[in-house]
Amino acid sequence: MEPFKWFAILSWGTFISLFITLDQSEADGLEQMQTMVLGEVLKDVDTACKLLNISPDPLGWSSLQVQKWLLWTEHMYCLPRVSMLFQGLSGQDLCSLSEAQFRQHSAQFGDMLYAHLDVWRSGTWKNDVTTNQVYFSNLKMFNDLLFPYSCVYEGPVFFADVVCGYHNQPIHLWQFLRELLLRPHNYSHCIRWLNKEMGIFKIEDSAHVARLWGMRKNRPAMNYDKLSRSIRQYYKKGIIRKPEESRRLVYQFMHPI
DNA sequence: CATGAGGAACTTA
DNA sequence: TAAGTTCCTCATG
Questions:
Q1: Of all nucleotides in the shown strands, which has a C1' nearest the CA of A219?
Q2: CB-proximal positions of chain C, under 7 Å
Q3: CA atom of A15 to C1′ atom of C3, Å
Q4: How much of chain A, in percent, has pLDDT values that exceed 90?
Q5: pTM of the predicted model, to two decimals?
Q6: Residue closest to C6 C1′ by Cα
Q7: pLDDT of A160
Q8: Where does the signal sequence lie (predicted)?
């Protein structure tokens, strides 16, 4: 697990203070760290609201406030001139855009901006920023933290990802595995292609992949035993199979795109 | 000892 | 009802 990835949307100041805190208590569980990170995210959102004099709910933003938010995000995360690409959109317009449409506006930073907006949009939590008690009404935000924005998609975006609008749908295991495989920079240590054209991949760290899947689905008890059972369900559905010469932890997508 | 196949009952969206 | 999840037995190297 690479905790640093989770800090992608934090400012440097909070990053450093969190890092110091974590360093002092390395026995802290993953869960506590998540709570801390999310607590910091909430504070950042809160700060931005006061600074920009905008509401925390993007749906209520005027086009001017959208520009404010974009400029702020641009500034905070060093995204060159992205605000120019979203001229004249109200908050409602912005929220109605899919991730694919964000990417159309900005190939380089579209998914990053989308993720940032989603943090705001899914912010209907019961929060108490002062005591750092964070409850989620929407695990989507948590998912986004697991999939860092700072990286660009490597390789093509798959048809199903774009067309099915899966971000509003419950994610499928095979899609999740593809998401990991699409980000070798982040996840190749735990899952990677052996032959991308043939759709053959290997799970290098079964426990880690299972843990990620468990987080994504909010199933803390997930393990490779259960994950692999789910993969095996794909055999008769024609989604994933074992390659010709079966090898441990190696599977193959039956319809690689 | 971790992986692999698959039955069966159960849960969750 | 689909898509897993949980638990299980038995097989393999």
A1: C5
A2: 3-8
A3: 38
A4: 23
A5: 0.47
A6: A226
A7: 26
A8: 1-27
Site of tokens 């802290």: A28
Give the Cβ contact number of residue A185 at 10 Å: 11
Q: Which two tokens stand for residue A153?
A: 């998609």
Please give the Cα distance from A220 to A212 (Å, whole number): 10
Footprint on protein of nucleic strand C, Cβ below 7 A: A 172-174, 213, 217, 219, 221-222, 225-227, 229-230, 233, 237
SS3 letters across A89-157 = CCHHHHHHCCHHHHHHHCCCCHHHHHHHHHHHHCCCCCEECCCCEECCCCCHHHHHHHCCCCCCCCCCC
How many angstroms from the chain centroid is the CA of residue A21?
24
Output the distance from A170 CA to B13 C1' rounded to whole Å.
Answer: 8
Nearest nt to the A249 alpha carbon by C1': B3
CA/C1' separation A226–C7 (Å): 9
CB A153 within 8 A of CB A169: no
Nucleotide at minimal C1' distance from the A248 CA: B3
Average pLDDT over residues A160-184: 66
Other CB atoms within 10 A of residue A45 CB: 17
pLDDT tens-digit readout, A15-36 = 434 443 444 444 345 555 555 6
Alpha carbon distance A200, A178 (integer Å): 11
Which residues neighbour A3 within 8 Å (Cβ) at sequence distance 6 or greater?
A: A22, A33
Look up residue A189 and give its DSSP letter. T
Question: What would the pLDDT profile of A188-237 be if each residue is shown by its tens digit?
Answer: 888 999 999 999 999 999 998 998 888 778 788 999 999 999 999 999 99
Minimum-distance nucleotide, CA of A230 to C1' = C4
